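Hi R.,

As promised on Friday, here is the backbone we talked about, encoded as structure tokens. Could you run it through your design pipeline when you get a chance and send me back a sequence?
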């Protein structure tokens, strides 16, 4: 009788395991197929000869010289010559004298998250769009790569003045050139399904020193705004599990003498306002006791931005 019970328990366990695998497989089927595997691409690029392209003079600034020494116009993530991060964390102000705005690349349904997709590493997020839809640059910066690139299809990589790099894949058309300066909101290409893609969508990546991290650590895709005006990079930033987000229980604080301390996150919650007819930045600043400058800063927008009805604006 005991043996019979053990056999039944084993059968039930295997059945649930198989159902879970089947459900996960079905979920993957609903997501856009294709793209590039992070590990495979990194292994192939690191064997190539170093790039000889000259760094554009506009990028010869202190904000970037700390993190980048090369300018590769042919590969996505080849940074073997870059020294490791100094210390355990790096704080990146997303807005500075050179980087003044943020625009979501495309406003569309979220199709697929960052992280493992089966055995492959999906190094970005997939966002639904229609063929020919304009795709915008996220931050001010300079185009580092603009060409057809294996599974990415027509692909653009931009190095931003804040240290972040962004990638835009599966474009039907590229509308920018290498070394071209771009502003947040500039159209860098048109949406499509070039490369390995099963439907029209934008494959969007965020990287620092060539390493991909989940764009959801940087961007709220529900409100199309930045989560914060500063991004802190730690070892925990680069997890690869599906839809990976580091633990939110603590945050890293970099002091003036480069000491790293841990402190609990503020209990003050963020507050959002849903845009209605007649809303303006001036009116909202008065309503919530803030300023237009502060509203623009925490949302990564410009004072001239048109507020679309029904969208959410962070006000605190």
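Update: got your reply. Pasting your designed sequence below so it's all in one thread:
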């Amino acid at each position: 009788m005991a043996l019979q019970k053990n056999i039944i328990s084993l059968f039930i366990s295997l059945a649930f395991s198989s159902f879970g695998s089947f459900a996960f497989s079905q979920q993957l089927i609903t997501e856009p197929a294709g793209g590039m595997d992070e590990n495979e691409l990194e292994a192939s690029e690191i064997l190539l000869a170093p790039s000889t392209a000259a760094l554009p003079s506009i990028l010869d600034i202190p904000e970037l010289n700390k993190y980048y020494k090369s300018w590769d116009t042919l590969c996505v993530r080849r940074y073997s010559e870059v020294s490791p991060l100094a210390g355990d964390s790096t704080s990146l102000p997303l807005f500075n004298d050179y980087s003044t705005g943020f625009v979501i690349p495309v406003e569309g349904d979220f199709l697929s998250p960052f992280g493992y997709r089966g055995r492959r590493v999906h190094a970005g997020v997939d966002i639904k769009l229609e063929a020919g839809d304009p795709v915008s640059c996220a931050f001010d910066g300079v185009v580092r790569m603009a060409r057809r690139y294996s599974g990415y299809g027509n692909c653009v990589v931009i190095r931003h003045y804040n240290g972040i790099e962004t990638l835009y894949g599966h474009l039907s058309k590229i509308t920018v050139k290498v070394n071209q300066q771009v502003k947040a909101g500039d159209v860098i290409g048109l949406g499509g399904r070039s490369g390995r893609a099963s439907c029209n969508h934008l494959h969007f990546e965020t990287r620092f020193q060539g390493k991909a991290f989940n764009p959801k650590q940087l961007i709220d895709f529900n409100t199309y705004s930045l989560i914060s005006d500063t991004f802190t990079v730690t070892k925990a930033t680069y997890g690869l599990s599906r839809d990976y987000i580091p633990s939110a229980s603590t945050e890293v604080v970099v002091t003036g003498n480069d000491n790293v301390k841990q402190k609990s996150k503020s209990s003050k919650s963020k507050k959002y306002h849903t845009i209605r007819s007649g809303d303006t930045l001036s009116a909202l600043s008065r309503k919530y006791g803030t300023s237009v400058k502060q509203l623009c800063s925490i949302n990564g927008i410009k004072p001239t931005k048109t507020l679309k009805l029904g969208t959410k604006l962070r006000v605190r």
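One thing I noticed while checking it: Residues 2-29 form the longest helix (28 residues).

Thanks again,
M.
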